[in-house]
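Aim 2 progress. For Galactosyltransferase N-terminal domain-containing protein, the working sequence is reproduced below.
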Amino acid sequence: MKSAGLIEGGSYRPKDCQSRNKVAIILPFRNRSQHLTVFLHYMHPFLQRQQLDYTIFVVEQTDGLPFNRGMLLNVGFVEAHRSDTFQCFIFHDVDILPEDDRNVYSCPEVGRPRHMSFVIDIHDYKPVSLMFLFGGGVIAISAVDFVLANGYSNAFSGLGLEDDDFYRRIRRLNMSVARPNIPAEHLRYRTLYHDPSVDVNPNRQQLFDDGYLRFESDGLINLKYRPSDIELKPLYTHVVVDLTEDNLNLLISRPLN
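Predicted structure tokens for this construct:
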């Protein structure tokens, strides 16, 4: 991969052309080392064949608290924004892989976030309905739109409805959700097997029902965390976050400017 042009931190820029898109790939992560190995060795060649200018960020939660996917995506956005200027961000689960190079990981239009993973093997490759619109997987959004939406809610720890809450945030701003305008067979994704047992947030429905009250106060605007380590590894930029109770009084704000 180094001979192909990949540099430390999981960054790549085409040598023979100037890419139209500068993309940050953000992976929320915990305890999926085998999936991460497969993802990195599969996705780097995939993205390079599309001649993208990109960096992969892995945001790992290392504490014993319930997994907070939405907060990790916010952390990834902020840390990527602080490291470079990216036109757009692709929020990507580590256990799902695109099957076809014609599924292009380019930047969506401003005001039109793109839902990419809606033709998946676990649904027999049948396009999912709108009720599953933002149910995890792969979402692309411009930097401008993510800031306008105030990012994800930080309140949904454990298995929650953070994606549904985020969908309401962008719809509140009258953004339209786009899907790639190519044949469905080019948009197929395959999922990697994992233990389905996860921590379920017992308060997730109440958090979702009351979410509209927090659109402006909960998200990027009140994001506080202490990265315990940021390391440029050969295949990715590793952002480690510890949210243990003992560290709650040590959390620091990470403003975008």
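The domain at 11-245 is CATH 3.90.550.10 (Spore Coat Polysaccharide Biosynthesis Protein SpsA; Chain A). This observation will guide construct design in the next reporting period.
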